[in-house]
Amino acid sequence: MGASQNLGSSPPQSGGEVARAKPETERGTPYQPSRRSPEKIARARELRHGDNQAEATLWNELKAKRLGGYKFVRQMPIGPYFADFACRSQKLIVELDGRQHAESSYDRRRDEFMRGEGFSVLRFWSFDVLKNTRSVCETILAALEGRLAENVVAADLRFVLAARKTGDSAL
């Protein structure tokens, strides 16, 4: 065999190295800074590392697209607030509340802000996540699939449907 023959399955030599994939920043794509401020990123990390057992339990069910193949993120900043869990593709926020949130006017303002940003908000009691995880997940899945199509206020959950483009009235 001659020295110029190509052996095996190597790509043919074309007078230079085979092009290797480069990170986007080296491919000529301009660097784009994060849309979020360093302060919001730090705060979201701090919130994710808190020791809230209900959030940890629910995150275990939502992470890695485990619930119906929907992707969730934790502690997503939305305006001045942080959503406990958010499914961006379906514009759904899931909030877990302890006793301090009972009839909270702050939470109602927060829900209205998120609703105005196009997100539906689903609130559960932390206790219910710990004791009835399956039911909570089934309710989240119903909201994701559009089976919850109106506002719901009950003792164990609150669902605020996203504002419609035509001027939907608030709850």
Automatic annotation (TrEMBL):
Superkingdom: Bacteria
GO molecular function annotations of the record: endonuclease activity
Keywords: Endonuclease, Hydrolase, Nuclease
Segments forming domain DUF559: 41-145
Biased composition (Polar residues): 1-13
Record keyword Nuclease present: yes
Record keyword Hydrolase present: yes
Region described as Disordered: 1-40
Protein name: Endonuclease domain-containing protein
Organism in which the protein naturally occurs: Mesorhizobium atlanticum
